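Sample 3 of the quickstart, ligand NAP:
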Amino acid sequence: MRRKVALITGITGQDGSYLAELLLKKNYKVHGVIRKSSSFNTSRIDHIYVDPHNKTNFFLHYGDLTDSNSVYNIINKIRPTEVYNLGAQSHVGVSFENPEFTAEVSGIGTLRILEAIRFLNMKKIKFYQASTSELFGETYGKNIFNEISKFHPKSPYGVAKLYSYWITSVYRESYGLFASNGILFNHESPRRGETFVTRKITRFLTKKKLGSKEILYLGNLNAKRDWGHAKDYVEMQWRILQQKKPDDFVIATGKAFSVKQFIDIASKVLNFKIEWKGKGLKEQGYLIHNNKKELIIKIDKKYFRPNEVDYLKGDASKAFKQLNFKPKYSFKKLVEDMVESDLILAEKEIH
Ligand code: NAP
Ligand code: GDD
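Result:
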Protein backbone atom coordinates (compact mmCIF):
# COMPACT_ATOMS: atom_id res chain seq x y z
CA MET A 1 0.00 0.00 0.00
CA ARG A 2 1.23 3.49 -0.89
CA ARG A 3 2.40 5.57 2.04
CA LYS A 4 -0.11 8.28 2.97
CA VAL A 5 0.73 11.74 1.69
CA ALA A 6 -1.10 14.76 3.09
CA LEU A 7 -1.33 18.23 1.63
CA ILE A 8 -2.33 20.91 4.14
CA THR A 9 -3.33 24.42 3.13
CA GLY A 10 -3.11 26.83 6.06
CA ILE A 11 -0.21 24.85 7.56
CA THR A 12 1.21 28.00 9.20
CA GLY A 13 -2.05 28.55 11.12
CA GLN A 14 -3.17 27.22 14.49
CA ASP A 15 -4.85 24.05 13.19
CA GLY A 16 -2.39 23.45 10.36
CA SER A 17 0.52 23.27 12.77
CA TYR A 18 -1.19 20.78 15.14
CA LEU A 19 -2.48 18.68 12.25
CA ALA A 20 1.00 18.50 10.70
CA GLU A 21 2.42 17.26 14.03
CA LEU A 22 -0.32 14.64 14.31
CA LEU A 23 0.15 13.34 10.75
CA LEU A 24 3.95 13.19 11.07
CA LYS A 25 3.46 11.04 14.19
CA LYS A 26 1.25 8.78 12.09
CA ASN A 27 4.11 8.39 9.59
CA TYR A 28 2.54 10.48 6.81
CA LYS A 29 4.57 12.51 4.36
CA VAL A 30 3.29 16.00 5.05
CA HIS A 31 3.31 18.81 2.49
CA GLY A 32 2.16 22.31 3.39
CA VAL A 33 1.31 25.41 1.38
CA ILE A 34 2.84 28.64 2.65
CA ARG A 35 2.33 32.17 1.41
CA LYS A 36 5.17 34.46 0.45
CA SER A 37 5.44 37.08 3.14
CA SER A 38 7.93 39.90 3.73
CA SER A 39 8.48 38.67 7.27
CA PHE A 40 8.63 35.13 8.64
CA ASN A 41 5.20 33.53 9.01
CA THR A 42 6.28 30.01 10.01
CA SER A 43 6.71 30.38 13.79
CA ARG A 44 4.09 27.70 14.53
CA ILE A 45 5.87 25.07 12.40
CA ASP A 46 9.55 25.99 12.79
CA HIS A 47 10.01 23.23 15.39
CA ILE A 48 9.05 20.50 12.87
CA TYR A 49 10.80 21.95 9.84
CA VAL A 50 13.89 20.13 8.60
CA ASP A 51 16.07 21.44 5.79
CA PRO A 52 15.01 19.33 2.77
CA HIS A 53 18.68 18.55 2.03
CA ASN A 54 18.40 16.25 5.04
CA LYS A 55 16.07 13.30 5.51
CA THR A 56 12.57 14.57 6.22
CA ASN A 57 8.87 13.82 5.80
CA PHE A 58 7.88 17.46 5.96
CA PHE A 59 7.90 19.74 2.91
CA LEU A 60 6.74 23.29 2.28
CA HIS A 61 5.66 24.84 -1.02
CA TYR A 62 4.92 28.43 -1.90
CA GLY A 63 1.37 28.83 -3.09
CA ASP A 64 -1.82 30.77 -2.54
CA LEU A 65 -5.49 29.86 -2.57
CA THR A 66 -6.15 32.87 -4.79
CA ASP A 67 -3.78 31.47 -7.44
CA SER A 68 -5.32 28.57 -9.38
CA ASN A 69 -2.05 27.66 -11.09
CA SER A 70 -0.16 27.27 -7.84
CA VAL A 71 -2.94 25.11 -6.40
CA TYR A 72 -3.03 22.92 -9.52
CA ASN A 73 0.75 22.60 -9.80
CA ILE A 74 1.25 21.64 -6.16
CA ILE A 75 -1.44 18.96 -6.27
CA ASN A 76 -0.10 17.62 -9.57
CA LYS A 77 3.46 17.47 -8.24
CA ILE A 78 2.73 15.97 -4.83
CA ARG A 79 -0.15 13.67 -5.79
CA PRO A 80 -1.48 13.61 -2.22
CA THR A 81 -3.73 10.91 -0.84
CA GLU A 82 -5.43 13.40 1.52
CA VAL A 83 -5.96 17.15 1.20
CA TYR A 84 -6.87 19.25 4.24
CA ASN A 85 -8.12 22.67 3.19
CA LEU A 86 -7.50 24.75 6.31
CA GLY A 87 -6.29 27.89 4.51
CA ALA A 88 -8.60 30.86 4.98
CA GLN A 89 -8.93 34.50 5.84
CA SER A 90 -10.39 33.23 9.10
CA HIS A 91 -11.12 36.40 11.07
CA VAL A 92 -14.83 37.22 11.16
CA GLY A 93 -14.33 40.89 12.09
CA VAL A 94 -11.71 41.41 9.36
CA SER A 95 -14.04 39.84 6.79
CA PHE A 96 -16.26 42.94 7.04
CA GLU A 97 -13.25 45.08 6.10
CA ASN A 98 -11.91 42.76 3.38
CA PRO A 99 -15.03 40.98 2.11
CA GLU A 100 -13.82 40.39 -1.45
CA PHE A 101 -10.47 38.94 -0.39
CA THR A 102 -12.27 36.77 2.15
CA ALA A 103 -14.59 35.43 -0.58
CA GLU A 104 -11.61 34.74 -2.87
CA VAL A 105 -9.65 32.80 -0.24
CA SER A 106 -12.24 31.24 2.06
CA GLY A 107 -14.84 30.65 -0.69
CA ILE A 108 -13.43 30.34 -4.22
CA GLY A 109 -10.13 28.96 -2.86
CA THR A 110 -11.98 25.73 -2.05
CA LEU A 111 -13.36 25.53 -5.60
CA ARG A 112 -9.82 25.93 -6.97
CA ILE A 113 -8.67 22.84 -5.07
CA LEU A 114 -11.72 20.77 -6.03
CA GLU A 115 -11.34 21.77 -9.68
CA ALA A 116 -7.65 20.81 -9.65
CA ILE A 117 -8.56 17.39 -8.24
CA ARG A 118 -11.25 16.99 -10.91
CA PHE A 119 -9.07 18.13 -13.84
CA LEU A 120 -6.30 15.82 -12.72
CA ASN A 121 -8.84 13.01 -12.39
CA MET A 122 -7.38 12.16 -8.97
CA LYS A 123 -10.60 10.66 -7.69
CA LYS A 124 -8.91 8.72 -4.91
CA ILE A 125 -7.90 11.88 -3.05
CA LYS A 126 -9.77 12.39 0.20
CA PHE A 127 -10.64 16.07 0.67
CA TYR A 128 -11.38 17.78 3.99
CA GLN A 129 -13.04 21.19 4.08
CA ALA A 130 -12.66 23.34 7.21
CA SER A 131 -16.28 24.38 7.61
CA THR A 132 -17.44 26.35 10.59
CA SER A 133 -20.14 27.08 13.15
CA GLU A 134 -20.26 30.57 11.58
CA LEU A 135 -22.57 28.93 9.01
CA PHE A 136 -25.19 29.13 11.77
CA GLY A 137 -26.27 32.52 12.99
CA GLU A 138 -29.88 32.31 14.11
CA THR A 139 -31.16 29.82 16.64
CA TYR A 140 -34.67 29.52 15.11
CA GLY A 141 -35.95 28.57 18.55
CA LYS A 142 -33.37 25.84 19.15
CA ASN A 143 -30.44 26.37 21.50
CA ILE A 144 -28.03 23.92 19.87
CA PHE A 145 -26.86 23.29 16.29
CA ASN A 146 -26.20 20.00 14.50
CA GLU A 147 -25.63 18.76 10.94
CA ILE A 148 -29.24 19.41 9.91
CA SER A 149 -29.72 22.83 11.50
CA LYS A 150 -30.60 25.73 9.23
CA PHE A 151 -27.68 27.88 8.05
CA HIS A 152 -27.86 31.65 8.43
CA PRO A 153 -24.39 33.19 8.10
CA LYS A 154 -23.99 36.71 9.46
CA SER A 155 -20.65 37.84 8.03
CA PRO A 156 -18.78 37.89 4.71
CA TYR A 157 -16.61 35.15 6.25
CA GLY A 158 -19.68 33.04 7.05
CA VAL A 159 -21.01 33.48 3.52
CA ALA A 160 -17.66 32.56 1.94
CA LYS A 161 -17.54 29.44 4.11
CA LEU A 162 -21.13 28.61 3.19
CA TYR A 163 -20.07 28.55 -0.47
CA SER A 164 -17.19 26.23 0.44
CA TYR A 165 -19.49 23.96 2.41
CA TRP A 166 -21.90 23.55 -0.49
CA ILE A 167 -19.31 23.28 -3.26
CA THR A 168 -17.68 20.46 -1.28
CA SER A 169 -21.03 18.72 -1.05
CA VAL A 170 -21.78 19.36 -4.76
CA TYR A 171 -18.43 17.87 -5.87
CA ARG A 172 -19.07 14.84 -3.68
CA GLU A 173 -22.50 14.27 -5.23
CA SER A 174 -21.65 15.23 -8.82
CA TYR A 175 -18.25 13.64 -9.34
CA GLY A 176 -18.10 11.01 -6.61
CA LEU A 177 -15.19 12.70 -4.86
CA PHE A 178 -14.41 11.75 -1.28
CA ALA A 179 -15.08 15.27 0.00
CA SER A 180 -16.16 15.90 3.61
CA ASN A 181 -16.98 18.93 5.75
CA GLY A 182 -15.96 19.26 9.37
CA ILE A 183 -18.32 21.87 10.85
CA LEU A 184 -16.09 22.88 13.70
CA PHE A 185 -17.13 25.18 16.52
CA ASN A 186 -14.58 27.59 18.00
CA HIS A 187 -11.35 25.94 19.04
CA GLU A 188 -8.48 27.64 20.75
CA SER A 189 -5.01 26.84 22.07
CA PRO A 190 -1.75 28.49 23.05
CA ARG A 191 -1.18 28.83 19.27
CA ARG A 192 -4.40 30.79 18.65
CA GLY A 193 -3.88 34.03 16.69
CA GLU A 194 -3.58 36.99 19.05
CA THR A 195 -6.48 38.96 17.55
CA PHE A 196 -9.03 36.27 18.42
CA VAL A 197 -10.76 37.05 21.68
CA THR A 198 -9.51 34.16 23.86
CA ARG A 199 -5.84 34.70 23.08
CA LYS A 200 -6.25 38.47 23.29
CA ILE A 201 -7.51 37.93 26.85
CA THR A 202 -4.87 35.41 27.96
CA ARG A 203 -2.04 37.51 26.51
CA PHE A 204 -3.35 40.60 28.30
CA LEU A 205 -3.99 38.99 31.70
CA THR A 206 -0.65 37.21 31.85
CA LYS A 207 1.22 40.43 31.03
CA LYS A 208 -0.87 42.17 33.70
CA LYS A 209 0.22 39.49 36.19
CA LEU A 210 3.80 40.58 35.54
CA GLY A 211 2.98 44.24 36.16
CA SER A 212 1.89 45.60 32.78
CA LYS A 213 -0.01 48.90 32.90
CA GLU A 214 -2.05 48.23 29.74
CA ILE A 215 -5.84 48.37 29.45
CA LEU A 216 -7.73 45.69 27.51
CA TYR A 217 -10.30 47.01 25.01
CA LEU A 218 -12.95 44.52 23.92
CA GLY A 219 -16.26 44.41 22.05
CA ASN A 220 -19.27 42.21 22.85
CA LEU A 221 -18.64 40.65 26.28
CA ASN A 222 -21.92 38.76 26.26
CA ALA A 223 -21.37 36.74 23.07
CA LYS A 224 -21.37 33.02 23.87
CA ARG A 225 -19.22 30.46 22.14
CA ASP A 226 -18.72 26.70 22.32
CA TRP A 227 -14.97 26.60 22.91
CA GLY A 228 -12.90 23.43 22.48
CA HIS A 229 -9.17 22.73 22.20
CA ALA A 230 -7.53 22.74 18.75
CA LYS A 231 -5.50 19.61 19.60
CA ASP A 232 -8.71 17.62 20.14
CA TYR A 233 -10.27 19.06 17.00
CA VAL A 234 -7.45 18.32 14.51
CA GLU A 235 -7.65 14.67 15.55
CA MET A 236 -11.29 14.77 14.39
CA GLN A 237 -10.28 16.35 11.06
CA TRP A 238 -8.10 13.31 10.47
CA ARG A 239 -10.78 10.85 11.61
CA ILE A 240 -13.33 12.43 9.25
CA LEU A 241 -11.09 11.41 6.33
CA GLN A 242 -10.60 7.87 7.71
CA GLN A 243 -14.33 7.08 7.42
CA LYS A 244 -15.49 4.60 4.80
CA LYS A 245 -17.70 7.22 3.15
CA PRO A 246 -17.44 10.99 2.82
CA ASP A 247 -19.78 12.81 5.21
CA ASP A 248 -20.25 16.01 7.21
CA PHE A 249 -19.73 16.24 10.97
CA VAL A 250 -20.29 18.85 13.67
CA ILE A 251 -17.42 18.99 16.17
CA ALA A 252 -18.26 20.84 19.39
CA THR A 253 -18.22 20.42 23.17
CA GLY A 254 -21.94 21.05 23.76
CA LYS A 255 -21.22 23.81 26.30
CA ALA A 256 -21.30 27.56 25.72
CA PHE A 257 -19.58 30.28 27.76
CA SER A 258 -19.62 34.04 27.36
CA VAL A 259 -16.55 36.17 26.68
CA LYS A 260 -16.98 37.56 30.22
CA GLN A 261 -16.99 34.05 31.68
CA PHE A 262 -13.79 33.32 29.76
CA ILE A 263 -12.20 36.38 31.38
CA ASP A 264 -13.41 35.38 34.86
CA ILE A 265 -12.04 31.84 34.56
CA ALA A 266 -8.71 32.94 33.06
CA SER A 267 -8.41 35.49 35.90
CA LYS A 268 -9.01 32.80 38.51
CA VAL A 269 -6.16 30.72 37.09
CA LEU A 270 -3.91 33.71 37.83
CA ASN A 271 -5.42 34.29 41.29
CA PHE A 272 -6.97 37.51 40.03
CA LYS A 273 -10.41 38.74 40.98
CA ILE A 274 -12.34 40.87 38.48
CA GLU A 275 -15.28 43.06 39.50
CA TRP A 276 -17.65 44.15 36.72
CA LYS A 277 -19.42 47.53 36.82
CA GLY A 278 -21.74 49.37 34.43
CA LYS A 279 -23.69 48.14 31.44
CA GLY A 280 -23.44 48.08 27.65
CA LEU A 281 -20.71 50.30 26.26
CA LYS A 282 -20.03 51.59 29.80
CA GLU A 283 -19.27 48.17 31.24
CA GLN A 284 -15.83 48.03 32.84
CA GLY A 285 -13.71 45.40 34.52
CA TYR A 286 -11.72 46.19 37.68
CA LEU A 287 -8.91 44.12 39.04
CA ILE A 288 -9.13 43.81 42.81
CA HIS A 289 -5.79 43.35 44.53
CA ASN A 290 -4.27 44.46 47.83
CA ASN A 291 -7.52 46.25 48.72
CA LYS A 292 -7.12 48.39 45.58
CA LYS A 293 -9.20 48.55 42.44
CA GLU A 294 -7.53 48.98 39.08
CA LEU A 295 -9.55 49.64 35.93
CA ILE A 296 -8.20 47.12 33.42
CA ILE A 297 -10.99 46.30 30.91
CA LYS A 298 -13.01 48.74 28.83
CA ILE A 299 -15.36 48.46 25.86
CA ASP A 300 -14.40 49.87 22.48
CA LYS A 301 -17.14 50.08 19.87
CA LYS A 302 -14.66 49.26 17.12
CA TYR A 303 -14.56 45.62 18.24
CA PHE A 304 -18.30 45.16 17.64
CA ARG A 305 -19.16 43.66 14.27
CA PRO A 306 -21.80 45.20 11.99
CA ASN A 307 -23.72 41.95 12.44
CA GLU A 308 -23.01 39.56 15.29
CA VAL A 309 -23.49 35.88 15.99
CA ASP A 310 -24.43 36.15 19.67
CA TYR A 311 -24.67 32.51 20.53
CA LEU A 312 -23.15 29.24 19.33
CA LYS A 313 -23.46 25.81 20.92
CA GLY A 314 -22.96 22.59 19.01
CA ASP A 315 -24.46 19.11 19.22
CA ALA A 316 -21.71 16.66 18.24
CA SER A 317 -23.71 13.46 18.92
CA LYS A 318 -22.96 12.14 15.42
CA ALA A 319 -19.20 12.61 15.92
CA PHE A 320 -19.35 11.10 19.43
CA LYS A 321 -20.87 7.99 17.91
CA GLN A 322 -19.22 7.62 14.51
CA LEU A 323 -15.81 9.21 15.14
CA ASN A 324 -15.56 8.13 18.78
CA PHE A 325 -15.00 11.80 19.62
CA LYS A 326 -13.94 12.19 23.26
CA PRO A 327 -12.36 15.58 23.87
CA LYS A 328 -9.42 15.45 26.28
CA TYR A 329 -9.71 19.11 27.24
CA SER A 330 -12.57 20.57 29.29
CA PHE A 331 -13.23 24.30 29.01
CA LYS A 332 -11.33 24.89 32.27
CA LYS A 333 -8.35 22.83 31.08
CA LEU A 334 -8.30 24.76 27.80
CA VAL A 335 -8.21 28.10 29.63
CA GLU A 336 -5.49 26.83 31.98
CA ASP A 337 -3.39 25.61 29.04
CA MET A 338 -3.60 29.01 27.35
CA VAL A 339 -2.92 31.01 30.51
CA GLU A 340 0.02 28.86 31.58
CA SER A 341 1.61 29.03 28.16
CA ASP A 342 1.13 32.80 27.85
CA LEU A 343 2.59 33.34 31.33
CA ILE A 344 5.80 31.63 30.20
CA LEU A 345 5.79 33.77 27.06
CA ALA A 346 5.26 36.98 29.06
CA GLU A 347 8.11 36.06 31.40
CA LYS A 348 10.43 35.49 28.41
CA GLU A 349 9.42 38.86 26.94
CA ILE A 350 10.28 40.69 30.15
CA HIS A 351 13.78 39.19 30.40
P1 NAP B 1 -5.65 30.56 11.23
O1 NAP B 1 -4.79 30.33 12.41
O2 NAP B 1 -6.15 31.92 10.93
O3 NAP B 1 -4.85 30.02 9.94
C1 NAP B 1 -5.27 30.32 8.65
C2 NAP B 1 -4.25 29.78 7.66
O4 NAP B 1 -4.67 30.10 6.33
C3 NAP B 1 -2.84 30.38 7.84
O5 NAP B 1 -1.88 29.39 7.60
C4 NAP B 1 -2.80 31.43 6.72
O6 NAP B 1 -1.50 31.74 6.26
C5 NAP B 1 -3.57 30.66 5.63
N1 NAP B 1 -4.01 31.53 4.54
C6 NAP B 1 -4.60 32.75 4.63
N2 NAP B 1 -4.82 33.25 3.41
C7 NAP B 1 -4.35 32.34 2.52
C8 NAP B 1 -4.27 32.29 1.11
N3 NAP B 1 -4.68 33.30 0.34
N4 NAP B 1 -3.72 31.20 0.53
C9 NAP B 1 -3.26 30.18 1.29
N5 NAP B 1 -3.30 30.16 2.64
C10 NAP B 1 -3.85 31.24 3.24
O7 NAP B 1 -6.94 29.60 11.27
P2 NAP B 1 -7.21 28.31 12.19
O8 NAP B 1 -7.79 28.76 13.47
O9 NAP B 1 -6.02 27.44 12.17
O10 NAP B 1 -8.39 27.62 11.38
C11 NAP B 1 -8.12 26.70 10.33
C12 NAP B 1 -9.30 26.64 9.40
O11 NAP B 1 -10.46 26.24 10.11
C13 NAP B 1 -9.67 27.96 8.75
O12 NAP B 1 -10.16 27.67 7.46
C14 NAP B 1 -10.79 28.50 9.61
O13 NAP B 1 -11.62 29.35 8.86
C15 NAP B 1 -11.49 27.21 9.98
N6 NAP B 1 -12.17 27.20 11.28
C16 NAP B 1 -11.53 27.61 12.40
C17 NAP B 1 -12.18 27.52 13.62
C18 NAP B 1 -11.49 27.96 14.89
O14 NAP B 1 -12.20 28.19 15.88
N7 NAP B 1 -10.17 28.03 14.93
C19 NAP B 1 -13.49 27.03 13.69
C20 NAP B 1 -14.10 26.61 12.51
C21 NAP B 1 -13.43 26.67 11.31
P3 NAP B 1 -0.62 32.90 6.98
O15 NAP B 1 -0.04 32.27 8.21
O16 NAP B 1 0.39 33.22 5.94
O17 NAP B 1 -1.56 34.03 7.29
N1 GDD C 1 -11.78 39.04 17.99
C1 GDD C 1 -12.43 39.68 18.97
N2 GDD C 1 -11.83 40.77 19.56
N3 GDD C 1 -13.65 39.24 19.34
C2 GDD C 1 -14.26 39.88 20.35
C3 GDD C 1 -13.70 40.99 21.01
C4 GDD C 1 -12.43 41.45 20.58
O1 GDD C 1 -11.88 42.42 21.09
N4 GDD C 1 -14.55 41.40 21.98
C5 GDD C 1 -15.61 40.58 21.94
N5 GDD C 1 -15.45 39.67 20.96
C6 GDD C 1 -16.44 38.62 20.60
C7 GDD C 1 -16.75 38.56 19.09
O2 GDD C 1 -17.69 39.57 18.75
C8 GDD C 1 -17.33 37.15 19.01
O3 GDD C 1 -18.69 37.16 19.37
C9 GDD C 1 -16.55 36.37 20.07
O4 GDD C 1 -15.90 37.36 20.89
C10 GDD C 1 -15.48 35.45 19.48
O5 GDD C 1 -14.72 36.21 18.55
P1 GDD C 1 -13.41 35.60 17.84
O6 GDD C 1 -12.48 35.07 18.86
O7 GDD C 1 -12.91 36.62 16.89
O8 GDD C 1 -13.97 34.31 17.08
P2 GDD C 1 -15.25 34.14 16.15
O9 GDD C 1 -16.24 33.30 16.92
O10 GDD C 1 -15.71 35.41 15.58
O11 GDD C 1 -14.64 33.28 14.95
C11 GDD C 1 -13.79 32.15 15.21
O12 GDD C 1 -14.57 30.99 15.33
C12 GDD C 1 -15.27 30.59 14.15
C13 GDD C 1 -16.08 29.33 14.49
O13 GDD C 1 -17.25 29.71 15.14
C14 GDD C 1 -12.79 32.06 14.06
O14 GDD C 1 -11.81 31.12 14.39
C15 GDD C 1 -13.47 31.62 12.78
O15 GDD C 1 -12.47 31.35 11.78
C16 GDD C 1 -14.26 30.34 13.05
O16 GDD C 1 -14.91 29.90 11.88
